[in-house]
Amino acid sequence: MGKRPLGLAEIEKFLNDGQVGSLATIGADGPYVTAVNYVHWNGKIYFHGRKWGRKMENIAHDQRVSFLVYAVDGYKRGATACATSTLYKSVIISGRAKVVEGELAENALKLLGEKFSPGLGDYSIPLDKLAITAVVEIEIEKMTGKERDN
Predict the structure, then answer these.
(1) How many other CB atoms are found less than 10 A from the CB of residue 86?
(2) Range of the domain at 110
(3) Could you give the angle at the alpha carbon of 87 between the alpha carbons of 81 and 92, nearest 5°?
(4) Number of folded domains in the chain?
(5) Given phi > 0 = left and psi -120 to 50 = alpha, else beta, which region is 5?
(6) What is the CATH number of the domain that holds 67?
(7) How much is the pTM?
């Protein structure tokens, strides 16, 4: 089949199944990319982290972000190095990030707990950890996906 675009249902399944995304932010000193665990919920991306640091400073500086989730499934060897292809699936999101609080943040943290610590049951965060935790929502403005499967 080669390279092809992903439909919306395929994109959403891929995002729901994914665990780590690359978050690109823009700061006063330029672009910055970091890996984050995330959950895709209600058509948005949520992740958490410390309330301070370069990622959070950049989001405060400029809410525009790019978010990439990808998976590599090997390589198709060609007759030459130039004919060798990476077999992959990827989704790229452009959007705006902001810190959320209250019930929305609590729900996102619970979903993150369920996704990354299934079966533990208690997804509450100790108050001392909660005091230093920020929950970030990415409002998706544009989303594309593609796959190369042979």
Answers:
(1) 11
(2) 3-148
(3) 115
(4) 1
(5) beta
(6) 2.30.110.10
(7) 0.92
